Amino acid sequence: MTHSRRLPTYFISHGGGPWPWMADQLQTRYAPLAASLQAMPGQLGVTPKAVLVISGHWEEPEFTLMSSPRPPMVYDYYGFPPHTYQIQYPAPGAPELALQVQALIQEAGFTARLDPQRGFDHGTFTPLAVIYPNADVPVLQLSMRVGYDPQQHIALGRALAPLRDEGVLILGSGLSYHNLRELGPVGRAPSAAFDQWLQQTLVVSSAPERLQRLLDWAAAPAARRAHPQEDHLIPLMVAVGAAADEAGRCVYHQDDFFGAISASSFMFGG
Fold first, then answer.
1. Are 58 and 144 in contact, with CB atoms under 8 Å apart?
2. How confident is the model at residue 16 (pLDDT cuts 50, 70, 90)?
3. Is the dihedral of CA 35, 36, 41, 44 positive or negative?
4. Buried residues in 76-108 as b, exposed as e (16+ CB within 10 A)
5. What's the pTM value of the predicted model, to 2 decimals?
6. What DSSP character marks residue 204?
């Protein structure tokens, strides 16, 4: 099935835990993020055949694809209200697409395996519940690879690029700033410095320069204060790799997230 247009790719900041199911959070702290996620179907202009999500909450020794036709739920957060451990996001899986993606990854020289047990973690179900609240678009999750090698994840994105012409939306789901110990005023300066670097890298830089800057991301201003561990940044590498030569633009930005934090999401191509 070939779509008449190539879908963009995204790197989104997915917020904390199950925030869409907590009305007080949704209407205040998360209102700008919610608005940006709700705008995505309009930006796309078509309903994807499926959404392929690389979540900052799943890593494996080798690239791994969920292959269940009805993925279960993974409540990978703690300290939230009891009702948030009953959430269901009943989107269908995409086992046939999983096989196709496995083949693309293997053709690129990586090993890839299928996991029939794996369910949706909150890096997937939280944003998708806002983007596609009816849970009527099939969803496939793909793991990161242990070690967080930027080059490998950019190469993974390149391998996935043909899916964009087949109506598959590639979504890197993480956070542009992910230091849970520095979420208040103490995080204002480092998050702003790193966000400025991201804007320069993803929106202003030429495509070759963008790739080089991403490979060297740890040398960016405040890099390790923004990402003490880069699990929430690596999904960006996949989104960029899948749109290697196409322009990026910022589709969500806040400089008062949790009162003080700079946070952003980006779209590539489209």
1. yes
2. confident
3. positive
4. eeeebeeebeebebebbbbbebbebbbebbeeb
5. 0.96
6. I
